[in-house]
Structure formats: structure tokens, C-alpha cells
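Magnesium transporter, Flagellimonas zhangzhouensis. C-alpha cells?
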Amino acid sequence: MNTDFEENSWAINYSPDNYYNRKFSLQDDLLLSKGDKSITWVNTYGLDYMEEFRQMVNGNELDDFLLRLLLNQKLGNKVIHLEEQLFVAARILKTEHDSMESEQMYFVVAKDFIWCIQEKRGDHFDWIRERIFENKGIIRKKRADYLLFFILETLINNYKDKYEDSIEMENALDAIVKKEPTPEFMFEVEQKKAILQDFKKASQGLRDIVVKLERVQLKGFHNAYFSELREQINGLITDIDSDIMELESQINLFFSVQGHRLNEVMKTLTIFSVVFIPLTFLAGIYGMNFENMPELKTQYGYFILLGVMLVVTVVSIIIFKRKKWF
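C-alpha cells:
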């Protein structure tokens, strides 16, 4: 009777000549090959199968220290060289959805098998499986290190594709023309910065793993594959850093222009105030209710006062023009 572990585990075994693809069986399937130069790839979805993990380790004569490592579900990013196997822990972003969740992945690697354990169901490795089933390229002629290279390359490419879809750096001038510094806009900016930082953190974690894999000394393990991966992940991190700088530049430019706009408004209001202050002063004087104000008895006093106000206004505008205040 199949256990829940077996229902959530899948085995692929392949060699240059043939392959099989089926649900994993604790009783019938082994990770270690029987000297037929085949490669076994087992995928397990879920981390809560410690009894089954114990059976896997003991039944395949793997290093007992793996059980201690598998107990810790928050290892982050690590590469641990055991006696005849590698243990790789990777904290990766789930790129299937917009929520940018993360999951813990473990890889137990030897020259003739990879046991891949994922915290959550679903992956992006179908294209690798297709190459195995259809015997495309050289994957069925290579050992497990080449399969690990393909898996890590897939994770890096997923990051690149999701990153390009998620981060569309809007033209700075368009943003300035169209948007105002509302709370919604500020939330959008902070959200974009958080996404950039998430991708950078995840990419740096993968780079740390790749760099450590470059230095591994394990029989049958070719480090050259991972040197090429390091160049890929470094390129992605460089792009992320560039976009972070561009975003910061856009934010600074946006608020500089907003500040300039505010200054222009304040200058316009100040000019209007300066023009109307003397007019208000004159109107205030002749609006007083004293009886002994000779100008109030003048026949053309009202028109004279309007003329004086007009002259004051024109003179003020000419002065402002010469000083290039507007």
C-alpha cells in the first residue's frame, strides 16, 4: 500500500539507452545505481516525512548526518560536503504566483543520483524531464552533476523571467507628468523596492550555492558546469543592482520636480501678494472713517486713486519682469 510519501514522490531513472518514469516506491526503488551507469532522479514534495526520510537514508546507505540536516526546515542556503554525497539547501522564490512566496529546497547529490526535496508542490523542471524522455541533447549521457546544473540553471532562468515580468521600470518623465505623491503612489514605490530586494536576496543566495559548488572536491563531480552558472547569476544581480539605482534615481527626480513645482506655485502666490499689498494699503487708508480726510471731498478723487493703483501695479510688474521673477 502506497504511503503519503510515495504519493508525493516521483522517480526518473535514465541512461543513454532507456529510461523509466513512475511514482517512487520505498520498497522497490533505490537511489544508488546497481552499476549500470544509470542516473536516478527522485522528486519529493513535502518536508514532514521524517520516518520515510530515515528509511531512504538507511536503505540507500547514505550518510546518517542527512537526517539531522533534513530535520531543520529553515537551513537557508548551504552546501555541505559529506563523505560521498553533497547536501545542498536552497531558499528559493516561488515564481508561479505574484505573491513572491519562498520555499525551502534540499538536494542530496552523488555521482549517480539526485534526491530533490521541495517544501511545496510544483516546479519548473518539466523541460528537463522532456529532454530526458525524448533524449534531447547530452543529458542522458552525463552524470548527476550535469542534472544538478540543469536544475539550478532552471531556477536562475525562472528568476530572470519573473523579474523581467514583475519589474517594468517606468519612464521617469512619464511618471512625473502622470503621478502625484499620493499615499497610494508611495505604497507602489515601496512595493517595487521590496520586490527588487526579494529578488536580490534570492539571487545572492543562489550565487553563494553556485560559488560553493565550484569549490567542491567530490569524485565524479565536474565544477566547470557551475562556473558558467556563476556568470549567469552575477549578470542577474548586476541587472537588479542597476534597477535599484535607477529606481532610487527616479524617486529623487520625481520629488525634485515636485519640489520645483511647489516652488513655482509659491513664487506665483508671492508675486500676487507683492502686487496687491500696496493696493490693499491704499484701499485701507481711504477706507478709514475719519471725517477730516480732504481727498474724500475731491471731485475726481476716486478716479485718481484708481490711476495711482494702476501705476503701482504696472511699475511692480515691470520690476518683476526685469528681475526675471516670472
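The chain has two domains: 4-256, 286-322.
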